[in-house]
């Protein structure tokens, strides 16, 4: 049975389903297929708003080989363009920078505004002639990629055909509506990058479920036990887990980080950890939040970018620096503990007789939800 036919086994009921076939983790051809049907066809995370904080800030990123340019326009809105000059295809910006006037191509000096409009084309009509009657500059602005910012993560829909982000994730946005408020990045210590030798989907699958906590995260499990967790798998476009015993980190004097204002009592001891498909992992707690962006490098390597956020600005609250540092170290330990598991599953996918595995009906609902979603995207991508 070929890999396409075996996808049917993923879409049956949870108690009988198999996981995605091995090829979806180790085959470059399937990786290239998922690039379009799963990652480019949906709202994928490519960056963070905190990296372009001021008007004129620009940051180049590469997403699945596609050069993108994130800019903050003069009106403070974030926009994403293909980082390619419309003349001869030269990369426009190669390092994060502050654009003082225009985005200038380093090849022939064509210039673009922060809104992507082509402003000037030096010598295009000959020496000293900056226009030509056959060149319609209005049609040669930078190609803008559809984008949306939520919880400081910059999402893009490369193919341009997905429903609006707010529509796709309406249920989750409502679920976390109390956290719809300003986020403050914790500073340099609150950024972490992990280079993981595994397919990006395995990072999502592992994050979704709490089943692995007792063995893989003994420190976390010491106070947030398996029985204190619940599954979140009722949405089509995301899934995850929650805890009923979130414990705030305190310093030696018993001081905790300030809470996000206006939260209901629901969040006094609760935290939730949800994967927003395809490639962003979020966590919310009463006093801090985080986002993890999964950047698929190839079918067996993923860069994970972790960013931590708080209710108060780090620059104005140095008294909490030690707590922020300790919190970052705590999460660094947790996320690094997962590398062993994710890389081990990747190696296991080279087992010729592994059939995708099965799911625990009680514990694996969130992971099963993700497998079904990926399968549906792949099948939809094949529909003429």
Helix content: 10-25%
What structural category characterises the helix and strand content?
A: alpha+beta
Q: Main β-sheet, in a few words?
A: 8 strands, antiparallel
Order of helices and strands: HHHEEEEEEEEEEHHEEHHHEEEEEEHH
| Count of beta strands | 18
Uncertain segments: none
Mean pLDDT metric:
95
General shape: globular
Distance between the termini: 23 Å
Rg calc? 23 Å
Q: How much of the polypeptide forms β-strand, as a percent range?
A: 15-25%
Helix segment tally:
10
Structural features, described:
The protein has 384 residues and is an alpha+beta fold. It contains ten helices and 18 strands. The chain has helices at residues 3-6, 23-26, 28-40, 165-168, 170-175, 200-208, 213-216, 218-221, 321-348, 365-382, and strands at residues 44-48, 57-63, 66-72, 78-82, 97-98, 103-104, 111-112, 118-120, 144-150, 153-157, 184-185, 191-196, 229-232, 238-243, 271-276, 280-284, 288-298, 301-310. Strands 11, 12, 13, 14, 15, 16, 17 and 18 form an eight-stranded antiparallel β-sheet that branches. It has a seven-stranded antiparallel β-sheet with strand order 1-10-9-4-3-2-5, with no helix packed on it. Helix 3 (28-40) crosses helix 10 (365-382) and helix 6 runs antiparallel to helix 10 (365-382). The two termini are 23 Å apart. The relative contact order is 0.17. The mean pLDDT is 95.
